[in-house]
Fold this sequence. Notes:
Low-confidence stretches: none
Shape: globular
Mean pLDDT: 93
Distance between the termini: 11 Å
CATH topology: Rossmann fold
Radius of gyration: 13 Å
CATH superfamily: Methylglyoxal synthase-like domain
Helix content: 40-55%
Order of helices and strands: EHHEHEHEHEH
Largest sheet: 5 strands, parallel
Number of domains: 1
Number of helices: 6
Strand content: 15-25%
Amino acid sequence: MNIALIAHDKKKTDMVNFSVAYTHILNKHSLFATGTTGKKISEATGLEVHRFQSGPLGGDQQIGAKIANNEMDLVIFFRDPLTAQPHEPDISALIRLCDVYQIPLVTNLGGAEIMIRALEDGYFDWRNNVK
């Protein structure tokens, strides 16, 4: 499966810790991330991560394009709800595309842990028949 990993600045440590904890699951999938987040995940885990631009420089839109082309299966996006983001329209567009194309999206650690366990248990096998 193609999995996007995105984290706002104040949530990058949470994303790295999540990736370290679940490396044994993530290493079975193709990973995509926005710039700095992808670099930090790769450095901490040794996982191969395709990196797009940072979110404010178009990374969210690049991931959105993968969603629109049916090339993304899951988005894990650790958002910071307490800090204004200069690229909020891009974030909203990404979330809208997940809804339009029925791509599972989680925006916090609790949801991500449920989603990654479901992935491990094979509950996303239906995505393989969508493409």
